[in-house]
Amino acid sequence: MKMITTGRFQTIMVSAIAVTVLVFMLCLAIGPGAPGSRAIAIGFPPSDILQLRLTRVGAAAIAGAALGLAGVLLQGLLRNPLADPFVLGISSGSTVGVMAWIVFGEALSESCSGHPWLEELLANGQAIPALAGAGAATWLVFLLGRRRGGMLDPMTLILSGVVISTIGGALVMLLNNLVPYGARADILDYMFGYISEGTSHTLVWLALLAFLAAWAGALTLGGAMNIASLSDAEAHSLGIKLSSLRFSSFALAALATAASITVAGPIGFVGLISPHVCRGLFGPDHRQLLITSPLSAAIFLMLSDTFVRSTGAWFNGELPVGVITALCGGPFFLYLLTRRRTWM
Amino acid sequence: METMIYNDIPFPGEAAGTVVLAAQGVSFYYGSNRPAVEAVTASFKAGELTMIVGPNGSGKSTLLQLLLGHLVPAAGKITAGSTDITHLRPLARAALISYVPQNPEVSFAYRVHELVAMGAWARQRYLSSSSTTSTRASIDAHVITQVMWDLDIHALADRTYDELSTGERQRVALARAMVQDTPVILLDEPSAALDIWHQLELMERVKYLARHKHKTVLWVTHDLNSAFANADEVLILNEAKVVAHGKPRDVLVPSILEPVYRVKVEVCNNTLLFSLRPRQG
User: Fold this and answer.
1) Is A121 helix (H, G, I), strand (E, B) or coil?
2) Contacts of B125 in chain A (CB under 8 A)
3) Which tens digit of pLDDT belongs to each residue from B45-69?
């Protein structure tokens, strides 16, 4: 299938990679000014601080890229331009996991003492319960979203996701009333997504590996995803095995979302908006979207996180990065909708 | 060109008259006890245009999707040559059978030339070992351009799908199937939204493909006069069953059509004339 010329494709890819690397370097060089000052400092800091920044900017890049990838996969799978990694209830599942951890975690930690590997796992804080919750919600939506014959059905998947999200929301409120008052602010931060310098290096590496595995798998699906944009019968007649394609897209999107949640919590809007922007700029060909969307999402999240990291003095402490992605992403998305409706 | 492209699938360029696709006692149910297709046995030959007719809900589109392999029969089987089509690999099946739906759907804003090029995807994948990439790419570029001229959509090449009229969308789906260039072509009311010039043009093109390229073409239609004038074979379905299957002049006759369509039928100057029966009581 010849969709965009090879030369143009290569130019787009090389430019996207170059801009991502440049933004990564830029974000490493930007940070808060002296304590007490509202200024933003530009320039590479001493190596100990640079090390911390590297972790955080790296985590933002991985989380963003993973969300951008999951967004393309899910919008393609659901044939719905409004799908994102959290429409399937994954966000709400991870929040339930974290809430449950805050309520029951201490008792669990005590019961696990004496098992070193379990203690090590639990020492990584919210990542494990967040992943468990996201995994449970994903699995439930997957089971509910299958039609007779075992094939995932886009409409059933979306409806199942909405129902699981609603149930998750109710569980969060239920657990919230069991949480001590002091811990409730942490939950609010978590629900908007938060990236920290203190993220364990093990988690960052795990997230990177999970994202790279999902990305490598997804890159083989681009041509088939284009064909699957047609009706089921047409896609079938063109040699697509829809059941396998949908299962692969779903599994890879879940893996990418898990990678993102591990280091950044549930960040909204990034996975929704980056496929849109790339579709608008370069067209709907999934073979290039699967490359440009993760890279542009990584750029967006790195810049957003650098903003919140550098402006703590402006807001009585750092904002959760999800606040910025929603405040920038929302209006931009609306602007795109009004400017050119055919992007859908 | 066909020989080169289809040199390793079950029936490469079969001689006219060879049975290429056959349904044997095929039944299908959409969840209820009432069958959508019941015990259908029929065979379709290379070089023949078979038009499938029948009232609304008689099972025409369902039969087409069963023959495509998209729906799996609850009983019976569909064979291509001697192979059960459910046993064919998806890409091998796509190299054999193309399909144009009643209402083509596209989820994102692809351009017309991208949608037509999708027809070459399966063939490119299927052929990946039999010719060099550059040869295939040039064949496909040539075929795509030619088909877009043939179906009068070359001027629409850079339009996005949502900018097209229903008839133009139907022609894009037809162009994709032509690029797919398969021995079997399944068409579900392909000319329902076309103006008369494009209808006649399409019919001539399809008859040419059947008679000169030995394609097996199945065309679902409500236009009984078109079937009467153009089809080599007509298959009449009613209430999920085959009522008749044969030459147009043998099966499109008042004694068969009147009970199926509940109308009065007369043949006048090689044209079927229909009128409502007077209401009883």
Assistant:
1) helix
2) 223, 239
3) 999 999 999 999 999 999 999 999 9
Q: What is the pLDDT of residue A155?
A: 83
Average pLDDT over residues A31-40: 79
Q: How many residues does chain B have?
A: 281
B94 to A279: CB separation less than 8 angstroms, yes or no: no
Q: For residues B180 and B68, give the distance between their C-alpha atoms in angstroms, rounded to a whole number.
A: 14
For chain A, how are helix, strand and coil distributed in percent, rounded to 5? Answer: 75, 5, 25
- A330 min Cα distance to partner chain B (Å): 21
Nearest CA to A253 out of A147, A140, A150, A134 is that of A134
**Quick one: which of A215, A284, A237, A281 has its CA closest to A75?**
A284
Phi, psi of A222 (to 5 degrees): -55, -50
User: Is B160's Cβ below 8 Å from some Cβ in A?
Assistant: yes
Q: Reading across the β-sheet that carries B19-29, which strands appear in turn?
A: B35-45, B19-29, B75-80, B83-84
- Cα separations in angstroms, B268 against B74, B244, B254, B265: 42, 21, 12, 10
Range in A300-309, B125-134, B244-253 the model is least confident about: B125-134
ipTM, 2 dp: 0.89
* Interchain proximity B106–A229, CB inside 8 Å: yes
Could B97 and A232 be called an inter-chain contact, meaning their C-beta atoms sit closer than 8 Å?
no
Chain A contacts in chain B segment 56-95 (CB below 8 A): 65, 68-70, 72, 90-91, 93-95
Q: Of A235, A262, A237, which Cα lies nearest the Cα of A249?
A: A235
Q: What pLDDT score does A217 carry?
A: 97
Separation of alpha carbons A152 and A268, rounded Å: 24
For residues B61 and B70, give the distance between their C-alpha atoms in angstroms, rounded to a whole number: 11
pTM of the model: 0.87
Cβ proximity of A171 and A96 under 8 Å:
yes
The Cα B199–Cα B222 span in angstroms is: 13
Distance from CA of B92 to the nearest CA of A (A): 7
CA B89 vs CA A337, B9, B70, B122, B181: distances in Å: 41, 11, 13, 11, 18
Q: Residues near A195 by Cβ (< 8 Å), separated by ≥ 6?
A: A56, A59, A60, A63, A263, A264, A305, A321
Centroid of chain to Cα A145:
21
The CATH code for residues A6-343 is 1.10.3470.10
Contact B110 A284 (CB under 8 A): yes
pLDDT-derived band at B3, boundaries 50, 70, 90: very low
| Topology (CATH level 3) of domain B2-104+183-276 | Rossmann fold (3.40.50)
**Which residue of chain B comes nearest to A229, CA vs CA?**
B107
